[in-house]
């Protein structure tokens, strides 16, 4: 036990040296000069810079508006104090004050910055969500236009002191990364958890903006968060804006459709629409705004090996053309996805899937790592009265239609399936469009490759336009008489 404690102390000391060295290197850079403003968990970040030494060369001002009324007086009223809106107000005001007060005196040689965070750490009585917003607004060069990095963190330690320590370290990493890696933002993302582990801090949102990051695609940065394990999921809107899931989904019923979306087909939208109609009829959902999400798993993105970023962006652009919000998750098991979404909202959650996917859900090979096997997984999945809406599957050869009512399940699992069906956990979608039943994305991809123009009738018009305009999925077919629809197809 003593050896273990000694190793833990030694490891903590090494991390401390690394973090202090980063803070010191910033302090010794004569160009950097700015403000630290921290709300909530104390002056955890700026403390590192004071302790490192030479702080007078870097810190123009340090402040903590801990009282809500004081905070409102400085930054304006906010509906929530730990939110992106509050963080942005802090960054904008503190950075502008530096520019107004200091540009004339030292603007030719200094790059001004404002670091801010607003955090809810573990309270004295416990029970509150431990998370925070953190960001830095800065000039990469003297008199340069502004650049900015914003992140959202979740603190996973059980003790307040450990959460504060982790918060301070990730804050130093962000400040150092903004200055050292603004020309290589992927390295900045890589460095955010230096001295920490994903068991202590989760970063589920990052957004780059401004002149230094004008070529950064935030969707790729969101993907990298999940790829590196910094977060189990990342989310962005149809317009490409990065979303923090728990803030966007706060107090909203959620409807999710999982797929490869290579590309989005008419059947995908029909499945979502049918499920939305049924889901919205539930008493607990009626009259509320339902957040509809298309989800892609990391396992799907890595199906061919390494992630193809061009293919990823093609899928995202296609979903965006349909006006859909996109979730990238590392939760291949549906019960893990359900648990994650339950952290984001207290409202109802529903998942829509085809009959083939529902059949696969009952394959026990996916649950061998759980002590309770498939029973444990389903207990977790349906824990909060989650609903599954099953879209029928058409066999194009036989014309047979498979629904959740005639789905073939292993005999020993039939009682479990019947129970879930009977209690309303699994629900049949009978409001489908018959014209969509025979559409499969793999057939659409094949037709695109074969220059068979009939694929255009299988996807929404907006999707067809994006594929053709941007030459997605190796589209190469000129629209002329030399490329007619083959008569034998």
3D architecture notes:
The protein is an alpha/beta fold and 489 residues long. The chain folds into two domains: 10-216, Maf protein (Alpha-Beta Complex); 247-436, Rossmann fold. It has helices at residues 2-27, 44-52, 68-75, 84-106, 160-180, 185-191, 218-227, 245-248, 266-280, 298-301, 309-321, 334-344, 355-361, 373-381, 414-422, 441-449, 461-470, and strands at 32-39, 59-63, 111-120, 131-139, 146-155, 201-210, 233-236, 242-243, 254-258, 291-297, 325-329, 349-354, 387-391, 393-394, 401-402, 426-428. The strands form three sheets. Strands 8-7-11-10-9-12-13-16 form an eight-stranded mixed beta sheet, with helices on both faces. Strands 2-1-3-4-5-6 form a six-stranded mixed beta sheet, with helices on both faces. β9 (254-258), α9 (266-280) and β10 form a beta-alpha-beta unit. α1 packs parallel to α5. The chain is globular. Mean pLDDT is 91; it is low at 4-11 and 480-489. It comes from Blastopirellula marina DSM 3645. This is Nicotinate-nucleotide adenylyltransferase.
Provide keyphrases for this structure:
489 residues, alpha/beta, Maf protein, Rossmann fold, 2 domains, eight-stranded mixed β-sheet, six-stranded mixed β-sheet, 17 helices, 16 strands, 40% helix, globular, disordered C terminus, Nicotinate-nucleotide adenylyltransferase
């Amino acid at each position: 036990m003593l050896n273990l404690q000694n190793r833990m102390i030694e490891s903590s000391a090494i991390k401390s040296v690394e973090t202090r060295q980063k803070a010191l290197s910033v302090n010794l850079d004569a160009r950097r000069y700015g403000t630290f403003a921290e709300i909530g968990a104390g002056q955890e970040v700026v403390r590192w810079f004071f302790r490192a030494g030479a702080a007078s060369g870097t810190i123009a001002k340090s402040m903590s508006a801990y009282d809500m009324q004081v905070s409102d007086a400085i930054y304006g009223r906010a509906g929530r104090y730990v939110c992106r809106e509050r963080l942005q107000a802090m960054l904008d005001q503190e950075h502008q004050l530096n520019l107004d007060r200091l540009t004339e005196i030292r603007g030719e040689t200094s790059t001004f910055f404002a670091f801010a965070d607003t955090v809810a750490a573990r309270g004295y009585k416990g029970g509150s969500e431990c998370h925070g917003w953190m960001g830095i607004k800065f000039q990469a060069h003297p008199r340069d236009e502004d650049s900015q990095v914003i992140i959202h963190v979740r603190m996973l330690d059980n003790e307040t002191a450990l959460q504060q320590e982790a918060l301070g370290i990730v804050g130093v990493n962000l400040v150092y990364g903004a200055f050292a890696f603004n020309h290589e933002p992927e390295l900045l993302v890589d460095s955010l958890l230096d001295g920490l582990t994903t068991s202590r801090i989760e970063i589920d949102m990052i957004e780059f903006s401004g002149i230094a990051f004008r070529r950064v695609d935030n969707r790729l940065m969101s993907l990298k968060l999940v790829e590196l394990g910094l977060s189990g999921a990342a989310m962005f809107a149809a317009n490409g804006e990065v979303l923090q899931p728990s803030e966007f989904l706060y107090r909203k019923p959620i409807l999710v459709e999982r797929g490869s979306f290579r590309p989005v087909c008419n059947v995908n939208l029909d499945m979502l629409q049918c499920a939305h109609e049924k889901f919205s009829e539930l008493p607990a959902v009626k009259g509320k705004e339902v957040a509809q999400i298309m989800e892609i798993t990391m396992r799907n993105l890595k199906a061919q090996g390494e992630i193809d970023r061009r293919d990823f962006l093609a899928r995202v652009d296609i979903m965006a053309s349909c006006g859909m919000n996109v979730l990238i998750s590392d939760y291949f098991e549906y019960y893990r996805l359900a648990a994650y979404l339950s952290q984001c909202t207290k409202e109802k959650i529903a998942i829509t899937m085809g009959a083939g996917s529902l059949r696969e859900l009952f394959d026990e090979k996916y649950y061998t790592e759980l002590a309770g096997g498939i029973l444990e997984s389903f207990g977790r999945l349906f824990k909060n009265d989650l609903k599954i809406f099953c879209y029928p599957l058409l066999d194009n050869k036989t014309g047979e239609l498979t629904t959740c009512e005639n789905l073939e399940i292993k005999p020993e699992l039939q009682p479990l399936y019947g129970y879930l069906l009977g209690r309303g956990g699994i629900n049949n979608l009978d409001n489908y469009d018959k014209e969509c039943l025979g559409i499969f994305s793999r057939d659409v991809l094949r037709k695109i490759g074969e220059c068979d123009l009939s694929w255009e009738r299988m996807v929404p018009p907006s999707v067809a336009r994006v594929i053709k305009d941007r030459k997605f999925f190796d589209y190469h077919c000129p629209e002329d008489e030399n490329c007619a629809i083959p008569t034998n197809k």
